[in-house]
Amino acid sequence: MIKVEWQEKRQLVKVSSMYYHDGLTQAQIAQKLGVSRPVISKLLQRAKDEGIVKIYIKDESVHTVELERQLEQYFGLSDAVVVPNNGLSEEMAKREVGQAGASYISNNIKDVKSIGISWGETLAHLVQEYPYERREDVTVVPLEGGMGVKQVQIHANQLANDLAKKLQSTCTYLYAPAIVETEELKERLMGMEDVQTVLEIGRNVDVALIGIGNPYANSTLMRLGYLQEHDLTQLREVGTIGDIGFRFFDENGAPINDSLNTKVIGITLAEFQKIKKVIAVVEGQHKVESILGALKGKFIDVLITDELTASAIIKKMTI
To answer: What Gene3D superfamilies would the database entry show (predicted)?
Structure first.
């Protein structure tokens, strides 16, 4: 650092005070001091270099923005969005994350022609919060089956339909359950032309919207009856840590080839990896290990989550 003489330092302090305290523009300061604007610009930069001026950003978003930056760097994400918790309940946090997801999608689908959507409560909030737009050129596609009478509002077919209405566009339907009873039934359904067509469109969407599940804690799969206690025992034995679209993976993101996987009607984890942009919208600290597994498996390009969950992920990475 070059030593700053008293007269020079006085000038740096004076210019900095006029700029940062008085709110004068560089041009106004230059006029007052009888010098050119580039001279003022250089003096302000030198004041920062010499430590005379230190800039602090004071805002509740600073911490979340730093978490976003760390997530992007640690995992090679193209983008991350972290929503402040601010003492929110779990349900409100889920709604806030869904709203952030809706805003992100709305602002980043200019050239998108097809959107694939998985299932889950946070994605349902995203669709509920999505603004009405006119995007008639977009097709919304369910990425796995989903039929039944329990919580149909969070199934992929329903979410695809609801999002298409918000976009004033079209959607396709995958007329099949997410998980069937036998491999034979799966093969018969997968052999149907309509099912094959929708899955092929799903494999080639421009953007995929997904959730990430933890089968052991606060599991929607359990609540809907897709998983039983004996299934959880089996999943633990083979090292399952989470799922995307009913497809299970371990702590390193490696797919789990269990008996449930052979009965799922939907795109596979390997096919998720080939989609141009996969956006995960996830809330909850109980999903930290599951999100980490998905990140390590390179299934995600953009992560939208809450502050407590993001902090816990970063903490795991820095221990």
So the answer is: 3.40.50.1360, Winged helix-like DNA-binding domain superfamily/Winged helix DNA-binding domain
Give the CATH fold of the 61-318 domain: Rossmann fold (3.40.50)
CB 144 within 8 A of CB 117: no
Sheet containing 207-210: give its strands across.
79-83, 302-306, 277-281, 207-210, 114-117, 139-142, 170-171
Residue-wise pLDDT for 270-288, tens only, equals 999 999 999 999 999 999 9
pTM equals 0.81
DSSP the chain: -PPPPHHHHHHHHHHHIIIIIS---HHHHHHHHTS-HHHHHHHHHHHHHTTS------STHHHHHHHHHHHHHHHT-SEEEEE--TT--HHHHHHHHHHHHHHHHHHS-TT--EEEE--SHHHHHHHHHPPP---TT-EEEESB---SSSSGGGSHHHHHHHHHHHHT-EE----S-SB-S-HHHHHHHHTSHHHHHHHHHHHT-SEEEE--B-SSSS-HHHHTTS--HHHHHHHHHTT--EEETTEEE-TT-PBP--TTGGGB-B--HHHHHHSSEEEEE---GGGHHHHHHHHHTT--SEEEEEHHHHHHHHHHHH-
Do residues 156 and 118 touch, judged by C-beta distance below 8 A?
A: yes
CATH tag for 6-49 (out of 3.20.20.70, 1.20.1740.10, 1.10.10.10, 1.10.490.10): 1.10.10.10
CB distance 269 to 255 below 8 Å: yes
Q: What is the pLDDT of residues 49-98, one digit of tens each?
A: 888 887 655 555 678 889 999 999 999 999 999 999 877 888 888 989 99
Q: Beta-carbon neighbour count of residue 244 at 10 Å?
A: 31
Q: What does the domain layout of the chain look like in residue ranges?
A: 6-49, 61-318
Q: Which of 231, 291, 247, 284 is nearest to 118 (CA)?
A: 247
